[in-house]
Amino acid sequence: MGDPKDEDFINFTAAAGEYIKVTMTPIAGVDFDLKLIAPNGNYWISKNAAGQTETIEITNATAGGNYSIDICMISGEGFYNFTVNVSPSRIWLTIQVSDSPSAGVKIWVDGTQYNGTTTTNPLHILVFRGNHTIQAQSYFRIGYGKYAPYYYFDYWSDNGSTANPRNIYITEDFTTMAVYYEDWPYMP
User: Fold this and answer.
1) Eight-class DSSP state of 184
2) In the chain, where are the structural domains located?
3) 112-117 and 105-109 beta bridge pairing
4) How many CB atoms lie within 10 A of CB 11?
5) Where are the beta strands (DSSP E) in the chain?
6) Long-range pairs for 175-178 at CB < 8 Å and ≥24 separation?
7) Can you name the CATH fold of 90-183?
8) What are phi and psi of 51, to 5 degrees?
9) Is 120 exposed, middle or buried (0-12, 13-18, 19+ CB in 10 A)?
10) CA 100 to CA 140: how far, in whole Å?
11) Alpha carbons 170 and 89: distance in angstroms, whole number
C-alpha cells in the first residue's frame, strides 16, 4: 500500500460459535485501521496510532459464514504483517485442589456448583473463551471428631491471587489449583 486511504480486503469463513482473532502489525511510522465485518453485518474496528498493532478478537462468533476484513491505510507508506486465527471457542478449564476430603470440594464456575473435586479428580470442563468467575469452597474438614483439622482456602496457584471468588479471562486451555492450608483445632 502506498497512497493514504488505500485499502486491502481479505475474506475468510468461520462458523457460529468459533473464536476469531485478527491481528495486523504495520512497520514503524505507518498507520492502518482494521475493520472486521461479520456475515450478518455486525462489525468491529481497531484504530491505534501509527506503528501499533491492530487487533480484533471475538470469543464466540454469533454468525457463521463469510467474514470480510478491511485494512485501510491512514498515513505513511509501507507494509504490514497480518494473521487470522479461527478456532473452536470452547476450551478446557481445569481446577485442581491441593487437599480434599474423600467426598471432594465444591467448586463454582460462573455460578454453577460442581461437587466432588478431589486432589486426584480435578474439575475438567469445557467453557467458552472469555471472562469467567471461579470459586473454591472456603473451608472443609478432613476426618471426624473435635480434633480433625480444618482446611482453609489460601490462594490460586497460577498467579497467587487470594480472591475467592475470582474473575479470570482465558483464551486457551487453563489450569489452576485452589491451594488450602491446614489448621488444627486447639488441643488441650
Assistant:
1) P
2) 7-88, 90-183
3) antiparallel
4) 9
5) 7-14, 18-26, 31-37, 43-47, 54-58, 65-75, 80-88, 90-97, 105-109, 112-117, 123-128, 130-136, 139-141, 150-156, 166-170, 174-183
6) 175/94, 175/95, 175/96, 176/94, 176/95, 176/96, 176/134, 177/95, 177/96, 177/97, 177/98, 178/95, 178/96, 178/97, 178/98, 178/105, 178/107, 178/136, 178/153
7) Immunoglobulin-like (2.60.40)
8) 80, -5
9) exposed
10) 8
11) 11
The answer for residues whose C-beta is within 8 angstroms of residue 102's C-beta and 6 or more apart is 118
At which residue does the C-alpha cell 495486523 appear?
24
Q: Residue 130 has what pLDDT?
A: 85
The C-alpha cell at 64 is 457463521
CATH topology of domain 7-88: Jelly Rolls (2.60.120)
Note the pLDDT tens digit of each residue in 122-159: 999 989 888 999 999 999 888 777 788 889 999 999 99
**Residues 103 and 37 sit within 8 Å (Cβ to Cβ):** no
C-alpha cell, 186: 486447639
Say what percent of the chain tops pLDDT 70.
Answer: 95
Which of left, alpha, beta for 44 (phi over 0: left; psi -120 to 50: alpha)? beta
Distances (CA, A) of 182 to 57, 142, 151, 153, 187: 42, 10, 5, 9, 15
Contact between 59 and 129 (Cβ < 8 Å): yes
